[in-house]
Amino acid sequence: MELKEAIEKRTSVRRFKSEPIPIDDLKEIISLAGKAPSINNSQSWKFLAIVNSELLEKMSQIVHKKIEQLFPVEEENADKKVVDTVDRYSTFFNEAPAVIAVLTKPYNAVADKISDENSLSAEELNKLRNYPDIQSVGAAVQNVLLAAVDKNLGACWLSGLMVAKDELEDLLSIEKPYSLFTCIAIGKPLGDVKPKEKKSLNEIFELID
Ligand SMILES: Cc1cc2nc3c(=O)[nH]c(=O)nc-3n(C[C@H](O)[C@H](O)[C@H](O)COP(=O)(O)O)c2cc1C
């Protein structure tokens, strides 16, 4: 598939066939994720491919419970519908044949080596640079989404589940220096998949000459 076609076909997929994804396909997708650019070529990422449905169900239940704690609403409350939507969009990944958990560890910027007492801490520098660590992982996640399309799979970026970051890290035995950054649900799409309407070029482009 041409890159342009993959970019145009990509859309978030939230309903999947139960068919497993061949492990070699998952490996190839992660290998392409690892080709993404990263600050200082730090590649401070790791990818766990979770294909155990019981574990995915456990993860989903953990997120569901956390959402109940964070947004306690009664059945008749007007906000209930909103919370149900948040819950659905944060927990549906238990129906996916695979979820990729993206882990990151803090990277050491070249500028961190400047041994001036007044120099910025690694955290301050990262903030000043507008979080290149986060920007880097975003590039890797996009590679996963596009590589999935290339394999006629569908995927969805999952930040909703991060409300239960600590609990999920415990369950997945993620240990320092790594931490859970985000997840991606992935599988064969169930039903029709139509990319969403996007803004026109005119709305998003301005030439500065
Ligand atoms: C950083 C990020 C986090 C997202 N988190 C979720 C999520 O938790 N649950 C979900 O269903 N979709 C999630 N999405 C998917 C967006 O809702 C989706 O990209 C958006 O609606 C545009 O639709 P499209 O991907 O089909 O173009 C996320 C997307 C991004 C970029």
What distinguishing features does this structure have?
209 residues, alpha+beta, NADH Oxidase, four-stranded antiparallel β-sheet, binds flavin mononucleotide
Report on this structure.
This protein is α+β, with helices and mostly antiparallel strands. The protein has one domain: NADH Oxidase. The protein has eight helices and four strands. It has helices spanning 3-9, 23-33, 53-70, 80-91, 122-128, 132-150, 165-171, 201-204, and strands spanning 45-50, 98-104, 154-158, 179-187. It has a four-stranded antiparallel β-sheet with strand order 1-2-4-3, sandwiched between helices. The longest helix is centred in the C-terminal third of the chain and has 19 residues, at 132-150. The chain starts with a helix and ends in a 5-residue tail after the last helix. Bound molecules: flavin mononucleotide.
Structural class: alpha+beta
* CATH homologous superfamily (4th level) name: NADH Oxidase
SSE topology string? HHEHHEHHEHEH
If strands are numbered along the chain, what order do they take across the biggest sheet? 1-2-4-3
What is the count of DSSP helices, taking H or I runs of 4+ residues? Answer: 8
Mean pLDDT: 94
Q: What hetero molecules are bound to the protein chains? A: flavin mononucleotide
**First-residue to last-residue Cα separation:** 34 Å
